[in-house]
Amino acid sequence: MQRAAYQVAEEILKLVSNSAVRPGERLPGERALAERLGCSRNTVREALAALSARGLVEIRMRSGAYLCRQNHPSPDGGRTGPGEALDALVTLGPALVERVCRVAGVSEHEHAERITARLGRALVDRSPLDAWRGLTAFYSALAEITGNSLLCAAMGSIARSGAAGGFENLPELAPAALQQFFAEHVEMLQAMRRHDVALASRCAAGSLDAFGRMLWQKNGGERN
């Protein structure tokens, strides 16, 4: 399965962190990065566009991508990037959905739906940061339903790391991508209501992947 652009973006950051590339210097070309990371050139292009939106690289027409920051981004220290925070949520989110799907009663499902309504309102302004806060509020609520304090702490850490990691630097969300994400999220809720664990888990994974695509997709449905 092709990795999402947000995952490849974080891998590019790690590659830069471990390389001799200095601020102002050119990154390896799209083809070289695609071969190194085992993904398509289109995915590399989307990942570089996402890094450009975060102010980490500068894309120069017919020249390539250049490192912007004075310090190499570190995968082991400093601020966590949006892609890394989302990757953690992609790992934990479907597991939370499965667990809640098995144990939740009517009141818990109603609570999850109320949180989703707030998520929908957060999406109105098409702000990536507000969307992230709304999404992590939903999964934090699921963690609370499980009653497991470690899961709650993990979700709190993911939510805080993402909120502090640069979502405010991403471009405004594209309406079509936003609608696709929210439709998949609602489909997941419906599967949870029916206690269809397998479908709910698949929908959770699909909606989170759609969230990642939504972050990097430009307005008008165009991609870099």
Automatic annotation (TrEMBL):
Keywords, in A-Z order: DNA-binding, Transcription, Transcription regulation
GO molecular-function terms, A-Z: DNA binding; DNA-binding transcription factor activity
Superkingdom of source: Bacteria
Gene3D superfamilies registered for this protein in UniProt: GntR ligand-binding domain-like (1.20.120.530), Winged helix-like DNA-binding domain superfamily/Winged helix DNA-binding domain (1.10.10.10)
InterPro entries per UniProt: GntR_C, TF_FadR/GntR_C, Tscrpt_reg_HTH_GntR, WH-like_DNA-bd_sf, WH_DNA-bd_sf
Coiled coil: none
Domain HTH gntR-type: 2-70
A UniProt-annotated Pfam family: GntR
PROSITE patterns assigned to the protein according to its UniProt record, in alphabetical order: HTH_GNTR
PANTHER family (UniProt xref): TRANSCRIPTIONAL REGULATOR, GNTR FAMILY (PTHR43537), UXU OPERON TRANSCRIPTIONAL REGULATOR (PTHR43537:SF5)
Protein's UniProt name: Regulatory protein GntR HTH
